[in-house]
Amino acid sequence: MPQQNHKQALQDPVFNILTEAADELGLDCYVIGGFVRDFLLKRGTPKDIDIVAVGSGIELAKVVATKLQGNPKISIFKNFGTAMIKHGKLELEFVGARKESYDHDSRKPSVEDGTLQEDQERRDFTINALALSLNQSNLGDLLDPFDGISDLKNKIIKTPLDPNITYSDDPLRMMRAIRFATQLDFSIELKSLQAITENKERINIVSKERIVDELNKIMLCPKPSIGLSLLHKTGLLEYILPELTALEGIEEVEGQRHKDNFWHTLEVVDNIAKSTEDLWLRWAALLHDIGKAPTKKFHKKIGWTFHGHEFVGSKMVYQLFKRLRMPLNEKMKFVQKLVLMSSRPIVLSEDFVTDSAVRRLVFDAGDFVDDLMTLCEADITTKNPKKQKQYKNNFTLVRQKIIEVEERDHIRNFQPPISGEEIMKTFSIQPSKEIGIIKAAIKEAILEGEIPNEYKAAKSYMLKKGMELGLQSKPGA
Ligand code: CTP
């Protein structure tokens, strides 16, 4: 194949320094991996630059650091034979060319020095094994022994070696293949897909953090269902998110069927990806129906039900986040709350939308109400155009009412207009259950729209309620 030259990829002044340092040390040196791939795909220039030297990457890094402005610090990882320099926004990663063989039970490679081609062979995909020379004598030459350039053109994910070796060496690559397919809208070569399917249980030796990292990248793609369905097809999803695969299938009893909640969920995730970049809102879409598998029942009279699936689902979110070592913080609480409330606006939209129902929704959802509406809109996957339109219109109406009610009643982050203290003073009473009863009654009256969310109205209501409970107000109250 004629050698191509891509000097124009090397415009950042840092490459001059790399060339100078490599030539001084007499090392062959290349930029490799994502930087080259993304340059050729015109995806912009990545912040990570992977440099491979035929010889010691660490020695090269040391010389480069002395030539860079501000003498940046080098982080050296001796065990891996790698070094890293932060230079402005760039992260330069240095490694010596190596042939690796992996331990069967871990992702830790044992490393031996090797040639550039041996190094390229041990990389994950042909499109990630493309290297550009950084030495002055052949600056910008493309070294592509596995014809990655054709795979880039044909949009194919392929491994340089037999895929069984590549994936078994480092099973995280199974997730990476699917992630790249989703991000770049590439296909995975059939042989590779089969190898992933065969090696799927080796995902168990990959840390949960790395799995989730790849999963999150898939979730942040414009069409996450590409990756999710590949994870499903290869059997990986069963290991990662069994709660989701449990939703697959349509059962029929006495001629009554329910929808396939797995494929429905994937549609919901794609829908929501059109409206938000928020990872956690996308996760809420992914998990909104997980309670349906354990709650599914068939009743002779009413057919299929999933009673309480929102509550059960929100409890499952905690278990799932814990298992996958995801953050058990406010992000998880957000996902739980959205799962818990995921049917509320739907019930509203199927019925006549009353102000009080909207006030209750806003009261319960608080600051999450807009995200909840976004989730519910994404949840409309009916193929019946008439119903589709009707639900959308109703949600538009709910959104309008939320704004109106909010302007008038300030229900979001509701603060009781009358404090317990004031109730005690007014009726000269000690802390007691009557205070709770009066406070709850005021809140209910506001949510029902009997009184506005204002101090004066709430005070008269308090006096009335107190009298009903047989309390005496202080004169002048
Ligand atoms: N690599 C590999 N196997 C892995 C991870 C990485 O062979 N499990 C190689 C690939 O050649 C890859 C390079 O190391 O291109 C750099 O890896 P990384 O920075 O993780 O990925 P990029 O390809 O740069 O892409 P992205 O930044 O999108 O993850």
What does this structure look like?
About 50% of the residues lie in helices and about 10% in strands. The longest helix has 25 residues, at about 385-410. Among the domains are: about 5-155, Beta Polymerase, domain 2 (2-Layer Sandwich), CATH 3.30.460.10; about 155-240, Hydrophobic Seed Protein, CATH 1.10.110.30; about 420-470, no CATH class. It has about 475 residues and is of the alpha+beta class. It has helices spanning about 15-25, 35-40, 55-65, 115-120, 150-155, 165-170, 170-185, 190-200, 210-220, 225-235, 235-240, 240-245, 260-275, 280-285, 290-295, 310-325, 330-340, 345-350, 355-365, 370-380, 385-410, 420-425, 435-450, 455-470; strands at about 30, 50-55, 75, 80-85, 90-95, 100, 110-115, 130-135, 140-145, 155, 185-190, 250-255, 255, 295-300, 305. The model has no long low-confidence stretch (mean pLDDT about 90). Strand 4 (about 80-85) and strand 5 form a beta hairpin. It starts with 13 loop residues before the first helix and ends in a 9-residue tail after the last helix. The radius of gyration is 30 Å and the shape is elongated. It has 24 helices and 15 strands. A 7-stranded mixed β-sheet has the order 3-4-5-2-1-8-9. Bound molecules: cytidine-5'-triphosphate. Cytidine-5'-triphosphate binds next to strand 2 and helix 7.
Supply database-style keywords.
24 helices, 15 strands, Hydrophobic Seed Protein, binds cytidine-5'-triphosphate, 52% helix, Beta Polymerase, domain 2
